[in-house]
Amino acid sequence: MSGEMEVLHDSEVALVSEGGSAPGRLVAEFSDTEYTVRISYSGKVVEATAWNLFEALADVRRELEREGLKPAVEGACRDVYPSRMALEMGGGRKAYRWPLADRPVTVGIFDAVPDDECGRLAYVGEQRDFVRRLGSKGHE
User: Fold this and answer.
1) How does pLDDT run across 124-135, given as a tens digit for each residue?
2) Which residues pair with 96 in a beta bridge?
3) Measured between alpha carbons, how far is 75 from 58 in angstroms, rounded to an integer?
């Protein structure tokens, strides 16, 4: 990578597990044509680079899953998934939150999920399965 990294997002993030939650830091950066998402916590760093932020976040989430952790951000919720256009045009920074009825709402994938909504957090496979089921019901 030849270009300088541009910081797109930098915030505290809660990492939720069966036993509670731990504090962490989430940073998203852009360089040339690639996006990097990094979560640091408890002296550890998990980082992934992809062609969009949503995929980079998903790769980081897969690593965190090994420790039973889910970052409390909208992009880690079972009912949130970006459209193809959001990935291609916006780098995957925004996604749709799919309600059970009505129209989806646009959210930022790094927006914090309130404590009382942590039940929406999902592992990557659970999130993809949920969205696949939505698609089969004609929502996409």
Assistant:
1) 999 999 888 877
2) 81, 106
3) 8
Written as one string, the DSSP assignment of 30-95 is EETTEEEEEEEETTEEEEEEESSHHHHHHHHHHHHHTTT-EE-BGGGBTTEE--HHHHHHHTT-EE
Phi, then psi, of 63 in degrees rounded to 5: -65, -45
Give 40-69 pLDDT, tens digit per residue: 999 999 999 999 999 999 999 999 999 999
CA angle 38, 93, 27 (to 5 degrees): 20
> What would the two tokens of residue 6 be?
């541009």
Residue 97 near residue 74, CB atoms below 8 Å: yes
Tokens 């996409």 belong to which residue? 140
Distance CA 62, CA 68 (A): 10
- How confident is the model at residue 138, as a pLDDT? 55
Task: Write down the pLDDT at residue 1.
Answer: 43
Rounded distance, CA 69 to CA 1, Å? Answer: 30
* pTM for the model: 0.92
